[in-house]
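Here is the promised in-class demo. Please do not try to memorize the tokens; focus on the logic of going from shape to residues.
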């Protein structure tokens, strides 16, 4: 009897295993993966696919200043400290710190951390990265974030002392910025060697980026996709996904199709008129996050007729921000009064921008000697809303006899051309990654930042320069706020740009994806994302 019972149980177990294998569509042996290791926990593993509008411009965190690039850097590199979504500072590669005096900060570093190439992360590595971003020969567009640093000293293997030329209140926020990413010393040395051979700064680092982050670089097919793989040895716990693929998909409808068919897990951006479709699909939903960013129409203030403030004000008076937010963005976002977004230090809710007033605009243009109008170009990249804004302005400015032509270009070329200053007007955005007025204003408006660093309006106002410098050096929060309040009022009056709106980030997320968020500066948080099969 026992023998028959045992045989029956054995047959039942075999049958159960067979049925389980058939139901799963896989092999009968589900206890191990092909490499012989145990399978990941439910929801972990897999290739996380993101379909995005624009490719990165550089994988060197010291060599670019755009959000598509930052979103790749954030996965490959770490910074000394992190900025939480609530703009609080928390430890990262620096586990603790103290301000020794007004101009001296000391950081204690995590021990046992390795770069992806096996190099040790230590105080010398910190010094090498922060020295490089400040090196004039490198010419980093992130230099402005760290130019106040006088010296970086490796006190011992895991202690770093940073001295600044003057007291600088937002130093920790700047060290949390992507520009403060820690790059492998070996990679930095190789990049300098390439520079001596006549190659561009960042050529080595961008081609093979090496950080300490939770994903490692695998490949980049420019204009097509970037592939990252899990760093199993990440010092702060490995990510959930085995890999991440960023696919460049310029067409919005194609991105939505990729999401709905399961070929992409996350898409960015979602167009406002696609939100309802995705939310009603039953397979995905739209993640909404109010940003600290600014979208704007910039003038080349060095070029006639935009060197005349009356012309800039006249065009500003023709722009109805509420109409743009409601008509183009379907109500997603906030009309801007000035350059700073709510949630940023220095934002003043009482400041009022230039209001829509076509009659006043005509009078100003006549005063400036352009009553008969003129011809000009508006440049934009392939962002659909920016194209729509350009078309709307083209129609609006006809009432001022301004004949506008629109030139649309690929994002990388667009950044290069606007940095060169060949444009009349252009539509772009700025993401305030630190949450501080210094980052929200200095790069866009200080005369030292013309071009690639951020000031593509080529704005030059000695009074604003001085106030921006003063805001960096002032440590009293109330006094700093008063400085930035004055700067914002001046910038509204001087109108180097039309401050259009503070956008709401809209990203499409598949129903089988959990743990995805996007921070107020537009950076994806991918470490804890899981995919349920």
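The designed amino acids, position by position:
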């Amino acid at each position: 009897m026992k023998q028959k019972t045992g045989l029956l149980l054995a047959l039942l177990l075999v049958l159960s295993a067979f049925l389980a294998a058939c139901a799963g569509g896989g092999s009968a042996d589900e206890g191990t993966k092909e490499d012989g290791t145990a399978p990941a926990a439910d929801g972990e593993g897999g290739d996380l696919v993101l379909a995005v509008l624009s490719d990165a411009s550089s994988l060197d965190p010291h060599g670019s200043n755009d959000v598509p690039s930052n979103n790749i850097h954030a996965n490959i590199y770490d910074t000394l400290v992190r900025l939480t979504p609530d703009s609080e500072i928390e430890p990262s590669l620096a586990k603790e710190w103290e301000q020794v005096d007004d101009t001296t900060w000391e950081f204690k570093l995590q021990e046992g951390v390795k770069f992806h190439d096996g190099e040790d992360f230590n105080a010398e590595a910190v010094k090498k990265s922060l020295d490089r971003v400040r090196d004039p020969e490198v010419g980093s567009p992130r230099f402005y974030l760290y130019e106040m640093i006088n010296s970086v000293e490796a006190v011992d293997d895991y202690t770093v002392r940073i001295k600044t030329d003057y007291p600088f209140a937002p130093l920790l926020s700047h060290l949390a910025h992507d520009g403060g990413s820690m790059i492998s010393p070996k990679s930095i040395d190789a990049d300098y060697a390439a520079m001596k051979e006549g190659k561009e700064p960042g050529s080595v680092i961008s081609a093979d980026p090496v950080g300490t982050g939770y994903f490692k670089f695998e490949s980049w097919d420019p204009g097509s996709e970037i592939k990252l793989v899990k760093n199993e040895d990440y010092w702060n716990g490995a990510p959930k996904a085995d890999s991440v693929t960023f696919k460049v998909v310029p067409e919005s409808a194609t991105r939505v199709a990729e999401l709905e068919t399961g070929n992409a897990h996350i898409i960015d951006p979602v167009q406002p008129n696609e939100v309802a479709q995705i939310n009603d699909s039953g397979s995905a939903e739209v993640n909404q996050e109010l940003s600290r960013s600014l979208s704007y129409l910039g003038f080349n203030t060095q070029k006639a007729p935009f060197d005349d403030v009356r012309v800039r004000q006249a065009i500003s008076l023709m722009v109805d921000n509420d109409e743009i937010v409601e008509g183009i963005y379907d109500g997603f976002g906030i009309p801007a009064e000035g350059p700073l977004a709510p949630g940023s230090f220095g934002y003043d809710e009482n400041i009022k921008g230039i209001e829509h007033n076509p009659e006043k605009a005509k009078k100003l243009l006549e005063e400036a000697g352009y009553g008969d109008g003129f011809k000009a170009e508006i440049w934009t990249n392939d962002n659909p809303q920016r194209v729509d804004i350009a078309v709307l302005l083209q129609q609006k400015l006809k009432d001022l006899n301004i004949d506008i032509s629109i030139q649309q270009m690929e994002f990388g070329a667009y950044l290069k051309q606007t940095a060169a200053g060949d444009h009349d007007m252009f539509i772009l955005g700025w993401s305030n990654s630190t949450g501080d007025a210094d980052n929200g204003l200095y790069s866009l408006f200080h005369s030292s930042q013309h071009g690639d660093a951020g000031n593509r309006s080529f704005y030059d106002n000695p009074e604003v320069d001085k106030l921006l410098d003063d805001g960096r050096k002032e440590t009293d929060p109330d006094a700093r706020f008063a400085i930035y309040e004055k700067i914002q009022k001046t910038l509204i009056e001087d109108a180097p740009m039309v401050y259009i709106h503070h956008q709401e980030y809209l990203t499409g997320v598949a129903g089988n994806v959990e743990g995805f968020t996007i921070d107020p500066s537009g950076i994806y948080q991918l470490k804890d994302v899981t995919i349920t099969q």
